[in-house]
Amino acid sequence: MTTNPSNTGLADKMRRGAVLAAACPSRKILNHVTSRWGVLVLLALGRGTHRFAELRRAVGGVSEKMLAQTLQCLEADGFVKRIAYPVVPPHVEYSLTPLGEELSIRVEGLTDWIEENLPRIMESRPVSE
Amino acid sequence: MTTNPSNTGLADKMRRGAVLAAACPSRKILNHVTSRWGVLVLLALGRGTHRFAELRRAVGGVSEKMLAQTLQCLEADGFVKRIAYPVVPPHVEYSLTPLGEELSIRVEGLTDWIEENLPRIMESRPVSE
DNA sequence: GTAAGTACACACTAAAAGGTAAGTACTATG
DNA sequence: CATAGTACTTACCTTTTAGTGTGTACTTAC
């Protein structure tokens, strides 16, 4: 195990710690993914195709504006696929792309761990709130 | 594979989708972890113990104020251990708790995936920026 | 005919997050 | 003896994020 960052190889550093550099483009993607609603939308879509209003109900507390914004952002990153049927009233379906599926697995890994370990986490917190 | 969220069992829903509920306490923890600097600090500390100034240099772009705030937050959640040696000039060491180690593995899973797939992601983006 | 639902966009405002600069108390280095 | 380094905190200000309310164009249910 490395206890000091300076004893990892340079190639390894480039490969695995690039996000730590401010200028790295993966920073932007990371920020989209870990945004307040991005994580939750990815999680919800991991369970299957949803319509806009369904997503809004699934993701507790999200506003229409933020949901629309988040979806557009994730779509631009290639994680979400949007299919609009030209009918009236409008019918739009959101789902994950293959890229999005892969990503949502990692996001789920994170959120599942938090949920499962919530008792341990709460326990280790000093007091209140 | 479930394509519709309504055909998952209720117990399963409770266990795996609790974050989707606005009132769930795991929401708060998730927000701490996925905060702009939280992810990066967890990542940096995953490589070993760091002093404050070392962390500041490791995490590109973070200000002293935000680093201090982030560390206090992660410490309160039980992910980070702070050891202050009563010497002058001050000497403080930050490291991950066992809980933090487990968490940082999931965070790394996410960031490593993003870094590795950055070419694919950029490719799938329509244009510019 | 009125209300609700569909999938948003837009304008305006409120709140939260984050940056900058300064200060602290002391030491080591040049 | 001035400068830099240590680990922060505080005040102030800017930027970003998010909420609220409105409008659209049309349909279905009551």
TrEMBL record, chains A, B:
Transmembrane segments: none
Keywords carried by this UniProt record: DNA-binding, Transcription, Transcription regulation
GO molecular function: DNA binding
UniProt protein name: Winged helix-turn-helix transcriptional regulator
PANTHER family found in the cross-reference section: HTH-TYPE TRANSCRIPTIONAL REGULATOR YODB, TRANSCRIPTIONAL REGULATOR, MARR FAMILY
Presence of keyword DNA-binding: yes
Gene3D superfamilies referenced in this protein's UniProt entry, alphabetically: Winged helix-like DNA-binding domain superfamily/Winged helix DNA-binding domain
Pfam families, sorted: HxlR
Span of domain HTH hxlR-type: 24-122
Keyword Transport set for record: no
